[in-house]
Amino acid sequence: MTDFILSNLEIVPGREVVAYKGLVQGNTVRAKHVGRDIMAGLKNIVGGELRGYTELLDDARQQATARMVESARAQGANAVVNVRFSTSAITAGASELYVYGTAVVVS
Helices (DSSP H) in 47-96: which residue ranges? Predict the structure, then answer.
């Protein structure tokens, strides 16, 4: 994703939006891992970060973002502005991570 700009603002500071390409999105649906569930259950007893889930969410964010950037590049964009993330439960034990924004060309 080098040379590609992502911004959670409606603009890219210091750059001018010269064309709007439209809404782009990326998503991934991930299921929990039994081993992670066992460790999470143990962590609930003693407290602390659930690192297995943290890693799972980080991987999901990266994959969903890469898919959004791929979609934006296919439309000729070099940036996505107003980037937002969302999650939702799909079934018991599986969640979707969804990222979306507006593909633009900046100069």
Answer: 51-74
Q: What does the chain come to in residues?
A: 107
Residue type (1 letter), 37: D
Q: What is the CATH number of the domain that holds 57?
A: 3.30.110.70
Could you give phi then psi for residue 68, rounded to 5 degrees?
-65, -45
Query: Which letter, b or e, does each residue of 81-97 get, where b requires 16 or more Cβ atoms within 10 Å of its Cβ?
Result: bebeeeeeeeeeeebeb
The pTM is what? 0.84
**C-alpha distances in Å from residue 47, one per residue of 4, 35, 39, 42, 53:** 39, 17, 11, 8, 14
Q: How many independent structural domains does the chain possess?
A: 1
Could you tell me the residue range of the domain that residue 29 belongs to? 5-106
| Per-residue pLDDT tens over the stretch 3-58 | 899 999 999 999 999 999 999 999 999 887 655 555 555 556 667 777 777 888 89
- Phi first, then psi: give them for residue 74, nearest 5 degrees: -65, -25
